[in-house]
Every structure is written in C-alpha cells, then in structure tokens.
Amino acid sequence: MSLANILIRRSFSLNPVSRFSVSGPSAISGHEAGGYKVWKKLSFFVALPAVGLCMLNAYLKHQEEHGHPRPEFVPYEHMRIRTKRFPWGDGKKSLFHNSHTNPLPDGYED
C-alpha cells in the first residue's frame, strides 16, 4: 500500500468527533478550568502593559527628535534624482511630502 492510500483510509475511518476531541484542560475542551482564563490574564497583565510601554517609548523618541534642528541641505548629485514628474501636485513633491523634513532637489521649501 502506498502512503497516500493509508492516509486517505485513516482520514475516512476516524469519525469527526474523535478527530477533533481534546483531552485535558484547554480552551476548547469544555472543562471548567478552560484555557481562556489564562489567555485573558495574559492579555490584561502582559499584552496591554507591553503596548503601553511601546507607546511611551515612541512618544519619548518623538519628543527627543523635535529638540534637534534639521540637518543642513547638501545637494548630492546621487540623491533626489527625478527622471519624471510625480503625477500629483506640481510634480516635485512625493505623495507623503513633509516640507519640514523632506527637501526638494534644490533644497528645503522654507
């Protein structure tokens, strides 16, 4: 018998209930000590504080960056090469252009 034949017979010989039954406490076993309580506690006591710490880190980095002046514009030839115009606006600015941080090929706007 080939391996594929054995696997096909095994999949048809097992009834669907016994194939998906779980022994022991888990979230789907139907016992009172289900695993959902563990995941609920992990969500509240691990995941939410971790998200809060990540938000605090991003906020502090953002505040730190706003204290520094922007770098002086140096017109390097290999940067900001425009072979064709952008299809929006005046054609010089990218889609998510920020006039404070993104220079145009000839320098900052202000």
How helical, in percent, are the residues? 40-55%
Instruction: Report the end-to-end length measured between terminal Cα atoms.
Output: 78 Å
Biggest sheet features:
none
Mean of pLDDT: 81
Rg from C-alpha positions?
30 Å
| SSE series | HHH
Number of strands: 0
Indicate the structural class. Answer: mainly alpha
Count the DSSP helices.
3
- Low-pLDDT runs of 5+ residues are none
**Which term fits the overall shape?**
elongated
Beta-strand content estimate: under 5%
Explain this structure to me?
This protein has helices at 3-13, 16-19, 36-65. The protein starts with a helix and ends in a 45-residue tail after the last helix. The chain is elongated. The model has no long low-confidence stretch (mean pLDDT 81). It has 110 residues and is an all-alpha fold. It is built from three helices and no strands. 41% of the residues lie in helices and 0% in strands.
